[in-house]
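Handout, page 2. Input:
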Amino acid sequence: MQTVLFHSTVFGPIHSRRLGVSLGINLDPDDGKVCSFDCLYCEAGFNAQGTGTTGLPPRDHVKRMLGDKLEAMHSAGEHLDVITFSGNGEPTMHPDFAGIIDDTIALRDRWFPEVKISVLTNSTRLDRPEVAEALRRVDNNIVKLDSAVTSTMRLIDRPVSDSYTSEKAVEMIRPFGRDCVVQTMLLRGSWEGQHVDNTTPEEISALIEAYRTIGPRQVMIYSIDRRTPARELEKVPREELEQIADRIRRETGIDVSVA
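Output:
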């Protein structure tokens, strides 16, 4: 089984194909995984590896680590495009997520005021007021919607909650409107004898209807780029992603980026 990739609270900077030069913040354990999804394609591996032993990093630890890193980068004259919350699971599950966002904004404003703050969230906790309000304070609230068909979403994303549906995801994302970017992973293959494919015309039609309902600032579509814990998944070719993006643009008028 693939193991956790990020072994520190602040990591990088790394080059993100979607966001540029990115300094990562991991609000999950550095030796385990905490997530409300268990995606077939997650680079951090499956939830079965466990939550580890180090626990969630305290708010003051995150603030200190990020402040030290930003100060060092500023002193060295290093370039930075974005501070990105990602890591070994779902960042909004941290109990001090909102406070950490406030700390991050203050530190960003001090050391790199031109840099954007991005949060990659799987959308499962958008119905929590403190989470929603915090996400409205960042520059890029990037929310996940991998399929607007519940059976497909549950096959690919494997949400921990049995009650989570694509319809519920759209309902929770919709209030953000242009204050969010919707991110969709497109892939195909198989998992435990089940066919996996969210690129069919029917799947894209359902996504287009969901995008119309939400009205995001942008849609990001991409495919797998690294080894996945479910080994029988296939990357969708760039040319096909571009064709899907053209259809989404044509039918919704929404800006679509391809990575």
